[in-house]
Amino acid sequence: MDAQPHPPGDLVVDADAHTGYFTLLASQLVGPTDRVIAIEPSPAFYRALTANIEANGCTNVRTVNAAVSDAAGRMTFYLERSTNLGDTTSVLPRTVVSSFEADAARRSAGRAPRRGPGVGREVARRTG
């Protein structure tokens, strides 16, 4: 991220924000008068994201519990290995440890994706 001075009114979008590491950095870099939007489709990571934002007192961050896609609709994400929680994919892998569904919002001018609890839904699944 660029730590150079910037004009007021900046907006940073952190797509696939995970637990919010870069969201928290961006919140501090843009300052209290500018905004950060953190987008995370996983319900579990979304809960951790919002907890981290609250714990760090970031008042300039808006969170969105949805996926980002080129088309609106419902998407299924898969976790292939439980040891790599940040490696989710929408392409069905050979083995699946778990999966979850999320609304995918196609971003268009003037319209924001749905946000808040209940947008993503976890679906546990095991394969051999």
User: Sheet bearing the most strands, described?
Assistant: 5 strands, mixed
Fraction in beta strands: 25-35%
Helix percentage range: 10-25%
Order of helices and strands: EHEHEEEEEE
Structure classification: alpha/beta
Q: C-alpha Rg, in Å? A: 16 Å
Given the structure, what is the number of helices?
Answer: 2
Number of spatially distinct domains: 1
Put the structure in a nutshell.
The protein has 2 helices and 8 strands.
Which structural traits does this protein have?
single chain; 128 residues; alpha/beta; five-stranded mixed β-sheet; three-stranded parallel β-sheet; 18% helix; elongated
Description:
- By secondary structure, the protein is α/β, with parallel strands linked by helices.
- Helices cover 18% and strands 28% of the residues.
- The chain has one domain.
- The strands form two sheets. Strands 4, 5, 6, 7 and 8 form a five-stranded mixed β-sheet that branches.
- Strand 2, helix 2 and strand 3 form a beta-alpha-beta unit.
Task: Spell out the blueprint of helices and strands.
Layout: E1 11-15, H1 21-30, E2 35-39, H2 43-55, E3 61-64, E4 67-68, E5 73-79, E6 88-89, E7 98-105, E8 121-123
